[in-house]
Design a protein that fits this description.
Strand content of chain B: 25-35%
Largest interface: A-B, 26 and 32 residues
Distance between the termini of chain B: 27 Å
Oligomer: heterotrimer
Radius of gyration of chain B: 24 Å
CATH topology of the largest domain in chain B: Rossmann fold
Distance between the termini of chain A: 18 Å
Order of helices and strands of chain A: HHHHHHHHHHHHHHH
CATH class of chain A: Mainly Alpha
Number of helices of chain A: 15
Shape of chain A: globular
Chains: A mainly alpha (290), B alpha+beta (354), C alpha/beta (277)
Structural class of chain A: mainly alpha
CATH topology of chain A: MetI-like fold
Helix content of chain A: over 70%
Largest sheet of chain B: 6 strands, mixed
CATH architecture of the largest domain in chain B: 3-Layer(aba) Sandwich
Number of domains of chain A: 1
Number of helices of chain B: 10
Radius of gyration of chain A: 23 Å
CATH superfamily of chain A: MetI-like
Chain lengths: 290, 354, 277
């Protein structure tokens, strides 16, 4: 029986078949407009790289304030990412799986930090955890001061990155679907077992990707940190704050540090796209069932 | 009685009641949207009905209004095999099958021994170390069956287990199922009359969320009462009132036939009995003009569609079908819309009470 | 065409009338009041050409000038109905970067000499810049003064959450110099990137004390208590202003600078806490 085999548009197919031509149905002008879009992102990066004083680069990025800022940034971003995972995974699970009253509103509110300016986020944190803030007042009474501490930096970064992680992971969880979990349950697995042995392994590659991107998001945090945490070398002055400050007196150092930040981000993005192939994706690929 | 089940779901317009004997395999058939899969999901604990109850081996799976008892899926002790094998993609075949025993609290080594045993039962021992992505559809479904059986369920629920398989894999799995279902309590949802015939002891036909017909598979297929069962059995079925060896239809037409032996000797009520007349499409002859002086049944119809049916051409006309040879179809010059006469000998028509 | 009116008008400016126009403006600034705003009524105009300033003037000013320059721009517009003043406030160094990168500024008012020098070095200051105001630092504390600070020395005590500007920005440089002048070693909990951030940390009650300009303290009103530093030689920050050499409306620019440096401008600035240049 003759069968019309339509080319699959999914990525794995294209990969496996290498460079074999396949019909794509993309009009030519799309390439042109897309190229403009790509250039708009790539050109400023090129412009930045062109400004780097390579002769001085090593000295500029190894100055004491630069190293302190870089180390602080890496340290706080790592801590924030860990917090994002600890609190974001359960949140994403609830949003993707559970059914409860107010779920839609909760989702909309949780995603707010994604759309409000980071400075606003910083103010919100200040009015909550600051010395005169909603919760901060009580914390001060028991001797906990968050403002001007590294903790404040981590909170600011977590605040902006958490919604990002929750949103992406919820999407991953929805794609992973509940069918496997239902099958596992009919096989006698308790909800905890299903989570540990089925759900987590299935979304792990997605979780790694989104955690790495959250890390990058934390690394770039500026507005909320500045507003909530302050700026002190080695304590609260992260790399973006240091860049902003260096710009005042030493633009070359600012450019060098900016390049460093971009380099770290590129590394992070590259790592993300090398994340281990999702078993789900393997399942969905047309080669799965020969 | 292994299973007693009744449930209603208003949102899906489902309301039914069914029972299952120990070791019995029940086939649920019916058109799409009839509510067949809802039955499986309710029993598995994946879908909650508005009211009803289910008791398996004297154990309540759920009991709602009155009562509010609901066992979660993992405590029900049922095995489920769906159309999609849904093997856990990150576990290899052996680990997939061992998942059930492990989840039931058995040791790792013990579970693997059990998994290996069930893989052998489905002739899939050689696949133990493969990942699901390396299996064909038929292989995956066999492994999924082994996985469902490895928990040693008291009831096996099969939801169109062969629907996604290609024509080469289905027969193998069907014969495998025939082997494992022997002596097991099972419910199989299927579209295939072959599955029902080979695997099920009893059949239920659902339509619009209700059971419209039920009985031993052979009886339902031989004497279908619903349109769906008739189409399953591949028979022409007419409704009417049984009257002295013939069926009087509502439009006044009369169909002569022979009463099934079980009813032939029974006394017939005066007002007649609601009944059916069934005959195979192959028993129908097609003529352009009405045949003269014959004790045969004759229906004047207009040809609807012509379609291949094995070596024959199936001529559909309203609720009736006739199977004739391609040569005959060509000779008659049949086209959709042609006025023809379907003729069937009384000896070919079976009459039975509804 | 209304959208482009303002950009077309400067080209219609009659050059012959410019001198008279500026004179009229200077007159109006020296306190003649609204009556003098109709240039056509001026007696000294040459010929029939009535001098009327028109067009859009882009003023780039240090963030600390926001309040005063907004007032002055409104006055300038009121006196020259055909003129639209467009204000841009930011940190002085940010503005210098923008102007050297081609931002369409006509006037630049800096919060320090260092940034104005950068502009002059780039050949963008038309004439030599003029100082028009000065500013000194003061200590501010929240109204409830949680750390009981009464002097500059108190703010340097350990345990006090003192917030200052980073040494890289003008107010931070002044802070460093004033601390040295007072013989104090400051141990701030934060070195902010701008003086507004310092003030924000104090008004929100987050910090016990902060070092800001006197003008910032004035702006904050009763949200802070101001404690003078009482230094023998306080660091005085001079505010220079200059016309940008690439301006297409030099008359407007000059006119605005005349307003700022004139009596009226000085009154507005000093009301806001600025010192005389």
């Amino acid at each position: 029986m003759p069968v019309l085999v339509l080319p699959k548009t999914s990525r794995p197919a294209a990969r496996v078949h290498g460079r074999t031509w396949q019909y794509t149905g993309v009009p030519r002008w799309v390439y042109l407009v897309a190229a403009v879009g790509a250039l708009f992102i790539l050109l400023p990066l090129a412009g930045m790289v062109a400004q780097v004083n390579w002769g001085q680069f090593g000295a500029l990025i190894t100055s004491e304030p630069s190293v302190a800022a870089l180390l602080l940034s890496l340290k706080t971003a790592a801590a924030s990412t860990a917090l994002c995972i600890v609190f974001g995974v359960p949140l994403a699970l609830l949003l993707a799986r559970a059914q409860f009253f107010g779920q839609r509103i909760l989702r909309a509110l949780i995603l707010l930090p994604l759309v409000v300016p980071p400075v606003v986020g910083g103010l919100a944190l200040l009015y909550t955890f600051g010395r005169e803030g909603l919760i901060g007042k009580s914390l001060t009474v028991v001797g906990i001061n968050i403002a001007f501490s590294t903790t404040a930096v981590i909170m600011a970064q977590t605040f902006v990155a958490l919604p990002f992680l929750v949103l992406s992971l919820e999407g991953t969880l929805r794609t992973a679907g509940q069918k496997y979990e239902a099958v596992a349950a009919t096989l006698g697995a308790r909800p905890g077992t299903v989570l540990r042995r089925i759900t987590f392994p299935l979304v792990l590659p997605g979780l790694i990707s989104v955690a790495v991107l959250s890390f990058a998001r934390c690394l770039g945090e500026f507005g909320a940190t500045l507003t909530f945490a302050g700026s002190l070398q080695g304590v609260t002055r992260t790399l973006p704050l240091e860049i902003y400050l260096q710009r005042e007196t030493d633009p070359e150092a600012a450019v060098a540090l900016s390049f460093l930040l971009i380099a770290v981000a590129v590394l992070v993005v590259a790592l993300t796209y090398r994340a281990p192939k999702s078993p789900l994706r393997a399942l969905m690929s047309p080669e799965a069932a020969p | 009685m292994t299973l007693e089940f009744n449930a209603t779901i208003a949102a899906r317009n489902v309301k039914l009641e069914l029972t299952l004997d120990a070791g019995e395999t029940l086939a649920i058939m019916g058109p799409n949207g009839a509510g067949k899969s809802s039955v499986v999901q309710m029993l598995a604990g994946l879908l909650k009905p508005d009211s009803g109850s289910a008791v398996l081996q004297g154990r309540a799976l759920f009991s709602l209004s009155p009562g509010a008892q609901w066992l979660p899926p993992h405590e029900r002790g049922l095995g489920v095999l769906a159309q999609d094998p849904l093997l856990f993609p990150h576990l290899n075949v052996l680990e997939n099958v061992a998942f059930g025993p492990r989840s039931q609290g058995r040791g790792k080594a013990d579970s693997r021994v059990s998994a290996a045993h069930w893989l052998q039962e489905v002739d899939a021992s050689g696949l133990a170390t493969r990942l699901p992505s390396q299996l064909s559809g038929g292989q995956a479904q066999r492994v999924a069956l082994a996985r469902a059986l490895a928990t040693e369920p008291e009831l096996l629920l099969l939801d169109e287990p062969m629907a996604a398989l290609d024509v080469n894999s289905a027969p193998f799995l069907r014969s495998l199922l025939k082997r494992v279902l022997a002596g097991r309590s099972a419910i199989i949802v299927t579209h295939s009359v072959l599955d029902a015939l080979l695997l099920a002891d009893r059949i239920i036909v659902m339509d619009g969320g209700r059971i419209v017909e039920s009985g031993p598979t052979a009886a339902v297929l031989a004497h279908p009462r619903s349109a769906f069962a008739a189409s399953l059995a591949g028979l022409n079925v007419l409704q009417g009132v049984l009257e002295s060896g013939s069926l009087l239809m509502r439009d006044g037409g009369r169909v002569a036939g022979r009463l099934v032996s079980a009813f032939a000797e029974a006394p017939q009520p005066a007002g007649g009995l609601e009944g059916m007349a069934a005959f195979a499409p192959s028993a129908v002859s097609v003529f352009l003009a009405p045949p003269q002086g014959s004790p045969r049944n004759c229906f004047k119809v207009s040809v609807g569609e012509l379609e291949p049916q094995g070596e024959q051409i199936r001529v559909r006309a309203g609720a009736l079908s006739a199977d004739i040879s391609p040569a005959a179809a060509a000779e008659l010059g049949l086209q959709p819309g042609t006025e023809v006469y379907f003729v069937v000998k009384a000896a070919e028509v079976v009459l039975y009470p509804a | 065409m209304t959208l482009f009116n303002t950009s077309i008008r400067p080209r219609r400016l009659r050059l012959g009338a410019v001198a008279a126009g500026t004179a009229a403006l200077a007159l109006s600034l020296s306190g003649c009041g609204p009556a003098a705003t109709a240039p056509g009524a001026e007696p000294n105009t040459t010929g029939t050409a009535a001098a009327e300033l028109s067009g859009t003037l882009n003023v780039y000013a240090a963030a600390s000038l926001k309040k005063t320059f907004t007032v002055l721009a409104n006055e300038f517009e009121a006196e020259n109905p055909q003129v639209k003043v467009s204000l841009s406030f930011d940190g002085s160094s940010t503005l210098v970067t923008q102007i050297t990168q081609g931002a369409p500024a006509d006037v630049f008012a800096s919060a320090d000499h260092a940034n104005m020098k950068k502009l002059s070095a780039a050949g963008l200051a038309k004439d030599s810049p003029v100082d028009f105001a000065s500013n000194v630092l003061t200590l501010v504390v929240p109204p409830d003064n949680p750390a009981n600070i009464t002097s500059f020395a108190d703010a340097a005590k350990p345990g006090v959450k003192l917030v200052v500007c980073a040494p890289q920005v003008p107010c931070g440089a002044a802070t460093k110099a004033d601390a040295a002048g007072a013989g104090l070693t400051l141990s701030p909990v934060s070195e902010e990137l701008s003086v507004t951030s310092v003030l924000g940390k104090v008004t929100s009650g987050e910090a016990d004390a902060g070092l800001v300009y006197v003008t910032d303290a004035t702006t904050a009103g009763d949200k802070v208590i101001s404690i003078p530093l009482n230094l023998a030689n306080p660091t005085v920050n001079q505010y220079p202003i200059a016309v940008i050499s690439t301006t297409k409306v030099p008359e407007l620019a000059q006119g605005f600078i005349a307003l700022v440096t004139g009596t009226e401008g000085q009154k507005v600035l000093q009301n806001a806490g600025f010192g005389a240049p």
